[in-house]
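Reproducibility note. Readers wishing to regenerate the assembly model reported in the main text can use the exact inputs given here. Chain order matters: entities are listed in the order in which they were concatenated for prediction.
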Amino acid sequence: MSADFRLPSGGRIDRDTRLRFTFNGQSLAGRKGDTLASALLANGLHQVTTSIKYGRPRGIMAAGVEEPNALVQVAEPFSEPMLTATTVELCDGLVADGLVGHGRLDTEPDTARYDAKHAHCDVLVVGAGPAGLAAALTAARAGSRVVLVDDQNEAGGSLLGRDDYLDERSSDAWVCDVIAELAAAPDVLLLDRTTAFGAYQDGFVLALQRRTDDLGFDAPRHVSRHRIWRIRAKQTVIATGAHERPIVFSDNDRPGIMLAGAARTYLHRYGVQVGRRIGVFTTNDSAYHAAIELAEAGMDVPVLIDARHTVPPKLSAECATRGIDVYPGHVVTGTEGQERLTDVHIRSITGGHADTVVCDTLLVSGGWNPAVHLFSQLGGSLRYAPELGAYVPGESLSSARVAGSAAGAIELMACIEQGAEAGRAAVTAAGFRPAAEIPVPFADARADEAAATVLWRVPGSENAEEDTQFVDLQRDVTVSDVTRATGAGLESLEHVKRYTTIGTAHDQGKTSGMLAAAIVAEELGADLADRRPTTFRPPYTSVSFAALGGRDRGELYDPIRVTALHDWHVAHGAEFEDVGQWKRARHYPRQGEDMHAAVLRECRAAREGVALMDGSTLGKIDLQGPDAAELLDMLYTNMMSTLKVGRIRYGVMCGIDGMVIDDGTVIRLADDHFLLTTTTGNAAMVLDWIEEWLQTEWPHLRVFATSVTEHWVTVPLVGPKSRDVLAAVAPDLDVSNDAFGFMTWQDAVLDVADGIPARICRISFSGELAYEINVNAWDGLALWEALINAGEPYGITPYGTETMHVLRAEKGYPIVGQDTDGTVTPQDLGMSWAVSKKKADFIGKRSFSRAENLRPDRKQLVGLVPADPTVLLPEGAHIIESDHLPEPPVRMLGHVTSSYDSAALGRTFALALLRSGRDRIGEKLYAPVDDQLVPVTVTETVLYDKEGARRDG
Amino acid sequence: MPTGNPPAKPGADLPDHPSFLWRNPEPASSYDVVIVGGGGHGLATAYYLAAVHGITNVAVLEKGWLAGGNMARNTTIIRSNYLWDESSGIYEHALKLWEGLEAELDYPILFDQRGVLNLAHSLQDVRDSVRRVNANRLNGIDAEWLEADAVKEICPIINVSPDVRYPVLGATYQPRAGIAKHDYVAWGYASAADRLGVDLIQNCEVTGIETSDGRVTGVNTTRGRIAAGKVALCASGHSSELAAMAGVELPVQSHPLQALVTELLEPVHPTVVMSNAVHVYVSQAHKGELVMGAGIDSYNGYGQRGSFHIIERQMSAALELFPIFARAHLLRTWAGIVDVSPDASPIIGLTPVDGLYLNCGWGTGGFKATPGVGDCFAHTIANDKPHPYNEPFTLERFTTGALVDEHGAAAVAH
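Running the prediction on these inputs yields the following structure tokens for the assembly.
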């Protein structure tokens, strides 16, 4: 049943803009400026859902992020699980349902846009309430860069939910003036609908801005829906306000029971009556204002139950004139009603008088908990303030200060003054001279007349069977659950939290945490001053994964790197593989070819004619400086300092444990200038590695290392006819074996286009006569096409990484990362020749003398040939000795690292890491494959051209 | 199709804890064994010392609250599909103990064998995965290699499209793997140890380790000196500080490692998915929240919080694999302090100081080993000699070079 609970006037909503929405299947209407909660209340609806464990009806309890009950699943305009009705801004066409415990993830992809932005400032102010505005104004007038974030759709904070006057004007006028001045200041960034959700070291604060949610279906697609602000501030002022604290009593969870401050907010901000007949239960003066204001607005407020014996005299008198019976020294002991509160049971604290009051709404105020979340996230210590019954900041941090009710201030004037003072302190600490005088407006808000008392719970039945004194409403945790936990021997609040699940729900204990801490302390007979609250963790309020993912999704998740020749490969039908961030052509199937056929053809071309590949992804590091040679001697196991200018050397790099981490070639361009190549996937790692050593261990070495990977296009030209093709494109170069020997390099100008300068290296990763031609990346395509043309008479064939793998494996050349796994030494690979015996030291040398490295039965790289030349061993298969499969555990001798079908050998073969491998050459072993044992024979690693006769063409 | 227990429906209410858990005794002046660190490993070690070896004059000293360190902060994944024989030995021993642990401890630890998928995204990932599956099977550990379509069958919400940045090329699958509820496990061990007479002493920080003639004699704590015949360290991220008190230098580095949860959601994710390449590991816990592990911070530190950009990066990776998670909400993040050894394997055993025993270096993988390491470490302490399962995991291996490298294969390279 809906009814009109909207007052004829008042509130900050746009009464002319009517918004239709659907809740729990019911068509309703609200106004622009409503939250879903205020719109429901305007329709007389309190119950939103039922509770997770006991299925009890639950209604709207708060007006902000602290809401423990009113969870909703939004279906339209943007599907989202588990939001609070109190924070969902109403839009036309909104469809939502009350949510029982669990949200539901929509299977429709989220196609909205999300992004992130950085902001840097001198002073960040979190919260645009009275304290935050005063702080921001003070900081801005000093000329500093200010960022002011606030989670509401308009500034004002608590002022929005009250009817205070400042300097004899409505507080709204003051807020408007301050915002106008801030907006006009050149270096102030105002962010509304922006929740600071995480505070980290060094002034780093994360905030979520909801940019289009209020626009509903009209939200423009090109505007990011949510934006993460990454704010770096010299100084932060935390003015995040306070959350009103409930009081625990029996059946304190019925719809219609809400926080007193929330009722004021619904009245003043949304023009909504939260009920017809209102009871009030309080421990402090603030709820008197709620009672009086609601009565003034036409609601029937029959009773105000005050747990204090000493009540505020003037406020009580004002209540009396409005027909509100004040009951000093009384408490609420229970309630009645199902979907909505009907009756409230009250009793004198000292016993005796008891009564039942008929009402549909009960406002509760147990005092205020400062919102210390961000301060605590920063590591700020908290102090228990007994007069508040809450934890407050217990120290000042050098770069963050807390002001206003977040610091425990109760009264409006104090909040404003604290804000101004915090702004002044912050801007001074940031290096600015504050303006001489910041006028602090005079608030007419009245000082408290009577001291607040602290009351956590009204004693009642704590029998587990009948206990309905809820501490955490969302988790359905009661006082008896807490006492059961302490009875079980638990003393730490963290343990009680885990035992009961208090504070683990969507609200992360914003209303329940302090109550739980206090009840546990009471049970243990401990003083809250000696105890700590549970840790506040980011985020302060929930943030969607999509918002956090931002733009870094899909193709922007990780940059795809392609070479300058990529388009050619695509146009010529290449299949690609991911190698690190790179897309590399794996093979170039022709019509009707599968990969197997294509690779056999490409291999044949390289061995018999000429073939070329795109090797541009190889990491290239330019190393310059007088100590470059010395550095290289430390980085590589080989001696590099003796390399002559004009020559090239293959080198192996090890980690400090002596295990191979990368390999490549080093070419010496000048005495103090080298070019290193690395494997494709390890290029960044190797540069990091070099920098780490240079910066931490050998800062005295005068060397600069620069990545030049993308500056060059590198084309290996391979095969017996490669010399002819090179001669055709480089007519001025003497390509004879004598003039251009193996492991040397030459600069040449190619007869391509207007003459392309090239650096040509005579190296081979295939065992064939081969050249690696490097040109400026811009000239890459011209080079490639020139080579294709020049090679046409010889049937030149482009080949991909798969063929490269086969060719190198036939020659027994390992691939780091495939034939090694971080546990393999150069000696294991049969590369003792690449480990210098002369050098005094190099990275990994020390480890080679360790006992484990000297064992004769280490795993070593060997070749394997299956008994059946057509059987391809799976890579990753293991090798065993026995010709039948024993029961597990089976002793494994090693595993297959690479396995191919070879055109040149006319059979399959593999490389393997095998225990005592080199001593086993000629042995017959077995590879379990599925349920079969494949017999294999151990061989040398080099299966093709063992004499190396083909290298010189 | 792989077999295994049917995935449990997330969203059920958790079982109640017992109405009594443990005493809170004052520390005695002397114990036969003092265990430093009241996390999962310390509590399990205490339990097996008492239950298996009859050594009950034992104290577990915890500087904060029991099981409040990494035990309360991990993502509760349990599996034994490690590559090397040494690792699979101890992890499979643990997994077998997990399978009987609920009965052993008489505690509802919610061990749920919903299987774990380890995804492969590159050809080298595939080689490494197949190698590991084969090794697991030869070691008697359940493991399968699944192609992408079979991955999709087990976990329908994974995006196996070939068009994504790093497509899923397949996965290893261990059906017996799964998750448990960490607090329940810790409290199960704690209450069982307490019943056997072990003193669980909280808010008791060890400030010094006393030795005499190369032998440990006791510990100094914030609650006074406690004499001890034997001292066993189970302090994860703070191990190196503690060992240094006895003059033992450890080759471990402590880093923050973050994890996070969402709000409670209806069942959507039936198994556990891990991807090293894009760095995601995620399951849906019993109550219904998604539990996700994030990356490790590269800097060393003891603050139990990490850097936020790690979380943001993590989300991007997660959404590539699980587009349906886009609308889920991050509710809470936290960090633990992991102690990383040079070969990414633990150090369990004797030290150069007589009577001082070491269990550390578990890095990101300690939870799943809890019963196994508790059993083996207790054996080591009781017999002053390693159990066969932890024999390979000596401190000396960093001198001899007999490493157990579980970094997995090195980065993809050509």
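We highlight two features of this model. The first strand of chain A starts at residue 14 and ends at 23. The mean pLDDT of chain A is 96.
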